[in-house]
Structure formats: structure tokens, C-alpha cells
Amino acid sequence: MRIIAFRTLREFWEKPEYADSEISLRSWYHEAKNACWSGPGDLKQQYRNASIVGDGRVVFNIKGNTYRLVVSIDFEFQAIFIRFIGTHKQYNKINAKTI
Questions:
Q1: What is the topology classification, in CATH, of domain 2-91?
Q2: pLDDT in tens, 3-57
Q3: Could you give the angle at which helices 22-33 and 6-13 cross, rounded to 10 degrees?
Q4: CA-to-CA distance for 85 and 52, rounded, in angstroms?
Q5: Left if phi > 0, otherwise alpha if psi is -120 to 50, otherwise beta: which for 92?
């Protein structure tokens, strides 16, 4: 999968208050980059706790659910677009389907 944009993840973990997310986000990035998911079913086999929220949006729990990562996935073009990364509390203030 192609991930757009890694910079968003890096800028997040470079903030001192979110530095503890770096290892988990790097791990997710490398796993997703090497994945070849053909649809939500394939994704759920690897990430059982991922939430499919519709319109190609998927929510991943990062670092034991301390953080939430919202992405938009185009399975046909093998592309993942980062839409949101934040704490669980910050996630509760957004709409994962529209962000």
C-alpha cells in the first residue's frame, strides 16, 4: 500500500507530548506499507480491532488505544490517505466519516 503522507505521522510524534507514539506509528506504517489488502476483509484479518466506519474510512487503535489513526483507503489503487491522528479524547471530538 502507498501511504499518503508519512510526514503527517512524523510531525505528530515529533511533538513532545506525543513522542510516546513514535514506535507504534512506525510499526503501523511499515506493516501497512507492506500490506496488499484487496478489501476490508483482508484488512480485518491483520487488524481485528480496526473499525471500518464507511466511505473507505478505517480507524486504527495505536499504542494500546492511547491514540486513534483515521485513514481513507482506496483498495483498488492500493493507497492509504492519513486523515487524522490524535488522542482518544481528541478523536471523540471529530467525525471519522468526514474528516
A1: YaeB-like fold (3.30.2310)
A2: 998 999 999 999 999 999 999 999 999 999 999 999 999 999 999 999 999 889 9
A3: 170
A4: 16
A5: alpha
Contacts (Cβ under 8 Å, ≥6 apart) of 3:
29, 32, 33, 79, 80, 82
Domain ranges of the chain: 2-91
Separation in Å, CA 48 to CA 40, 59, 61, 81, 87: 11, 11, 10, 20, 20
Residue 91: CB atoms within 10 Å: 19
Residue 22, CA distances (Å) to 27, 46, 63, 97 in order = 8, 20, 9, 25
